[in-house]
């Protein structure tokens, strides 16, 4: 998806993303976010990896979910 981001003052190509609700399964959250942001409904998703974007600076944890086509 393309979305304008003010800090860089241009549209960027991004993947759908979001936050987990309390006690929400990460794959179910990925399905929900995909539908909310794109309108697409995924039938089967697979968790790939958990990563920290910049652990020396912030504690953001990224969980990558994949749909194999």
TrEMBL record:
<dbReference type="InterPro" id="IPR015797">
    <property type="entry name" value="NUDIX_hydrolase-like_dom_sf"/>
</dbReference>
<dbReference type="Pfam" id="PF00293">
    <property type="entry name" value="NUDIX"/>
</dbReference>
<dbReference type="GO" id="GO:0006753">
    <property type="term" value="P:nucleoside phosphate metabolic process"/>
</dbReference>
<dbReference type="GO" id="GO:0005829">
    <property type="term" value="C:cytosol"/>
</dbReference>
<keyword id="KW-0378">Hydrolase</keyword>
<dbReference type="GO" id="GO:0047631">
    <property type="term" value="F:ADP-ribose diphosphatase activity"/>
</dbReference>
<dbReference type="GO" id="GO:0019693">
    <property type="term" value="P:ribose phosphate metabolic process"/>
</dbReference>
<dbReference type="InterPro" id="IPR020084">
    <property type="entry name" value="NUDIX_hydrolase_CS"/>
</dbReference>
<feature type="domain" description="Nudix hydrolase">
    <location>
        <begin position="1"/>
        <end position="69"/>
    </location>
</feature>
<protein>
    <submittedName>
        <fullName>ADP-ribose pyrophosphatase</fullName>
        <ecNumber>3.6.1.13</ecNumber>
    </submittedName>
</protein>
<dbReference type="InterPro" id="IPR000086">
    <property type="entry name" value="NUDIX_hydrolase_dom"/>
</dbReference>
């Amino acid at each position: 998806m393309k979305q304008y981001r003010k800090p860089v003052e241009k549209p960027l190509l991004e993947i759908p993303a979001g936050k987990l609700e309390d006690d929400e399964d990460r794959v179910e959250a990925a399905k929900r976010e995909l539908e909310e942001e794109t309108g697409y409904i995924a039938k089967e998703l697979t968790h790939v990896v958990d990563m920290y974007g910049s652990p020396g600076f912030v504690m953001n944890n990224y969980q990558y979910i994949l749909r194999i086509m």
